[in-house]
Design brief:
This protein is mostly beta strands. The chain has no helices and 40 strands. Strands 15, 16, 17, 20, 21 and 22 form a six-stranded antiparallel β-sheet that branches.
Length: about 425
């Protein structure tokens, strides 16, 4: 079957043997020059240059037809490009240019190279036509995700499109099953394919909206599958990933211990959350004013179901007697917090008498306090000494509070 274009004023006719040509088919390119045999043919740079030399064809898979035209026996993509036939026996070289490319037959107007204007005629010795190959699979872009699920929305929107000729059928798969079998709340929108008026290439698109996503849906794979003349192609998968926060946070470890000989004690605490997606970040604080403190330990993450991760982190609290009853807090990004109270124990520290000498005159009284700071409070054996000799034990100690600790004192009245 032949398709033909009449040049204006009947100045010439151009023939091609097919409108839509698929790979591996044959096609004949017809030279329009009259009364020539074995013209000189040139083709795209992917083929031999020149394509012919006298009666010799320099490229395999091409043969002469009627000693003038060229037949490509099995069209491949390497045949894409411009072709020309010429005869040098006339002034003003006549050529036929044929472009083989993906698409359809597209006839172009000629350009007047001297004036740069588009002219609507075909010269007897100067003709041009563009011939395109239709082949598969179609050009298919990766999935486009226009809306991701978030902490405030459990909706996801995806799009898929292809360009091809003829049209491509599109459908969606979730975990390799049809979306109707996925158990998800999905709205599908498949507008009609559109044809480009210039190239006559079809663009086909499909859109889906997944509503009411739950964290149990995390990890499911979404594919767009194209069907081009029964040739099935799938995109790379997109994963459902609904963010969710931790609901529980705890601090474990020993919060109570006795200071050492230099008055210090190290307490190692661990903060941990349940699963979250993405994993929570942990922050440590001390005191009722929540002064932030840093841990030297790395954060440990453990994979959980539904793309969740449990996180935990240790911290060393180096405490002294002044930090007894202090609060240590651990918080996640969501301001999910927990708190423990330190219980720092330390032996007595004698705070009074504060003077090494007391002056006493006859018939006057003097009060000499004996004060000790310790935690926890206990009944110690109190005794006064004079010149190295123990005196009578005074009355029961009186308990007061200093640094959130117990302070014991008693007074000895001397007459």
């Amino acid at each position: 079957m032949y398709y033909e274009i009449d040049g204006k004023h009947g100045m010439g006719i151009l023939y091609v043997t097919a409108k839509d040509v698929e790979i591996n088919n044959e096609i004949t390119i017809i030279c329009p020059l009259p009364d020539v045999t074995f013209p000189k043919w040139t083709g795209p740079t992917t083929l031999a240059t020149p394509l012919t030399d006298g009666q010799t064809i320099n490229e395999q898979g091409i043969e002469w037809v009627d000693d003038k035209n060229l037949k490509i026996l099995s069209v491949e993509t390497k045949h894409t490009g411009q072709y020309s036939c010429s005869s040098g026996n006339k002034e003003g070289l006549a050529e036929l240019n044929v472009l083989i490319d993906l698409g359809r037959l597209h006839l172009l107007h000629w350009y007047n190279q001297a004036k740069g204007k588009r002219l609507l005629f075909f010269h007897l010795y100067n003709h041009q036509v563009y011939l395109f190959l239709v082949s598969g699979p179609p050009l298919m872009r990766a999935l486009t995700i226009s809306k991701f699920p978030s902490l405030t929305s459990n909706q996801m929107k995806l799009s898929c499109d292809t360009t091809s000729r003829p049209e491509t059928q599109l459908k969606w798969l979730i975990d390799d099953k049809n979306i109707t079998e996925s158990g998800l709340n999905i709205e599908e929108d498949n507008p009609e394919c559109t044809e480009d008026s210039a190239t006559h290439i079809f663009t086909c698109m499909s859109n889906i909206t997944i509503n009411d996503i739950k964290k149990k849906d995390n990890g499911k794979s979404i594919y767009c599958e194209s069907n081009y003349r029964d040739d099935l192609t799938k995109t790379s998968p997109a994963k459902i990933s609904l963010p969710y926060r931790a609901t529980n946070i705890v601090i474990s470890g020993n919060t109570s211990d006795v200071v050492n000989s230099v008055g210090k004690v190290t307490l190692t605490l661990t903060c941990a959350t349940d699963a979250a997606n993405p994993a929570e970040k942990l922050n440590w604080y001390i005191g009722s004013e929540k002064t932030e403190i840093n841990s030297t330990y790395p954060v440990a993450e453990v994979d959980e179901m539904y793309d969740g991760k449990n996180v935990s982190q240790d911290i060393d609290i180096v405490a002294d007697r002044t930090m007894n009853k202090q609060e240590v807090s651990c918080c996640a990004d969501t301001n999910l917090c927990t708190m423990v109270t330190l219980d720092i124990q330390y032996p007595p520290i004698l705070l009074a008498p504060q003077l090494s000498h007391y002056r006493l005159t006859q018939l006057t009284n003097i009060s000499m306090p004996c004060i000790a700071d310790q935690y926890p409070g206990r009944h110690n054996i109190w005794a006064w000494f004079k010149n190295g000799k123990a005196k009578k034990k005074p009355a029961e100690p009186i308990m007061e509070t200093t640094f959130n600790a117990d302070k014991f004192s008693e007074k000895l009245n001397r007459h």
